[in-house]
Every structure is written in C-alpha cells, then in structure tokens.
Amino acid sequence: MVGLNSGVIQFFTCALISVLVANTACSFGYFISCLTSDVTIALALTPPVMVAFLIFGGYFLNNSSVPVYFIWFKYMSWFYYGNEALVINQWRNIHHIHCPSDNSTLEMANYTTATATTGHCIRTGREVIETLHFSENRFTADITALLLLILVFRSMAFIALFMRSTRR
C-alpha cells in the first residue's frame, strides 16, 4: 500500500527489526530510570541523549558525514543499527527502480502531477544502500548489535538499581 517491498519475508523481518528497536529503546529507558533518583533529572537527561543518538543514527546525517570524534555516538545508537537493517531489508532484493525520462510528468498519490527534472537517477536497491553508505554485509551485525544493546542497557539498569538499593 505504501510502496514498501511486499515480500512476506521482508514484512516479518521489518516487524522483527521494529520490535528489536522498540525493546532497545525501552532498555535505555530502564537504564535512565534506574540511574536517576528523580523524574525531573531523567526528563532533563533523556532528550539531549536521544537527539544525539537520532542525529548520529543516520536519519539526519549521512553515515559517512559523522565526524571522527563523534563516531562512538553512532555505534551506541540503536537508531543507526535499526535504520541500516531496515534499509537493507527494504532494498536488498530490488534489482530495478523505474527512472522517469527527462521532464516527465509524474502522477502523485494525491492525484496531482509533478514534473521530474534530469538528475542522477538511482536504478537499483544496491545503489540506494550504497548512497546511504550502508553495507548489505552488515545486516546480521546490525541485528546482533541491537540484541547486544538490549542486554547492555538492561544489565547497566540492573547494576544501577542494585547500587541504589544497597546505599539505603
């Protein structure tokens, strides 16, 4: 309906990746909740960290544009691993993308028309993945990294909660 890859395997893979990303975000929430003693502190701490993870996760900043001194943020971001895995899942098996000719009139979803101008046209799914500076070979590593982040955040939450409970 929305033009995504309509294969059954791609659908369930997308659902799995979405569940892993949601669980990683929940695990981060557990960690912040166990780390801070007050809701106000947690609410002040979480948004800047989340925005940094989102920026360096590849949504707003191309993967190759991340400065070297912020590269660690990219690798701690579950948005990075989820985004790369979803992009690979969507485009891996797309071998042809229709490219309109010069100054073609395109039918839009809202029943209007638009004129396409000449420019670089991406023709395969592999080109889409490469344009975003992702690699098909890292799909399994992305899934593994999401699972690892879930375990790390939950372990850190447990340690923080344990330390807070023993202080009293």
From TrEMBL:
GO terms for molecular function: ABC-type transporter activity. The keyword Methyltransferase does not apply. It is found in: Membrane. Keywords: Membrane, Transmembrane, Transmembrane helix, Transport. The chain crosses the membrane at residues 6-32, 39-61, 143-163. It is a multi-pass membrane protein. One of its GO terms (cellular component) is plasma membrane. This is ABC-2 type transporter transmembrane domain-containing protein. It comes from Medioppia subpectinata.
